[in-house]
Design a protein that fits this description.
Order of helices and strands: HHHHEEHHH
Strand content: 5-15%
Shape: globular
Radius of gyration: 17 Å
Length: about 160
């Protein structure tokens, strides 16, 4: 988590700093896949994304999202080379923005998409849907971390 999210402008602008993440198509798609579609491994993100991200791009974005503190990863005890990616609290705070982006796109730019894709109640952030999604992600991540600790303890004791 050494790299910070920084704006390219000479003077600090919070909108420019947010755009460093939110204007990058692949980073937003990866955050969506983890937060909304619960795709938490490299392979699940790669194979379940309709956008067909390349392996190189996915690897680079996952690494960058970890470097700037939006993702963390844990080893998968059932597969030594697999990493399980989780949102950090900073990334969880982006969920209402992702939900708002979805609502805006469905309203203004995507009449051909299934309007039920992200749930029925898409209001401006933080909507009840966004709050529910945040709670779900937080609960899922607690379970993942607890499972990792249990498996790690078992392995350490053997």
């Amino acid at each position: 988590m050494g790299e910070k999210i920084t704006a390219k402008a000479k003077m600090y602008c919070p909108i420019s700093a947010a755009a460093e993440i939110l204007a990058d198509h692949w980073s937003v798609v990866i955050l969506r896949d983890i937060a909304i579609f619960d795709q938490r491994t490299f392979n699940s993100i790669l194979t379940n994304s309709n956008e067909k991200i390349s392996t190189g791009t996915l690897a680079a974005r996952l690494s960058r999202l970890c470097d700037i503190g939006l993702l963390i990863h844990h080893g998968d005890p059932s597969h030594s080379q697999r990493k399980i990616y989780c949102l950090t609290s900073k990334a969880i705070e982006l969920i209402p923005i992702l939900v708002s982006m979805s609502a805006w796109a469905l309203k203004h730019n995507a009449p051909h998409l299934d309007p039920n894709l992200f749930g029925q109640n898409r209001e401006t952030a933080p909507s009840p849907y966004a709050k529910e999604l945040i709670e779900k992600v937080q609960q899922t991540q607690k379970v993942i971390i607890n499972d990792m600790v249990v498996v790690s303890t078992i392995i350490d004791n053997n």
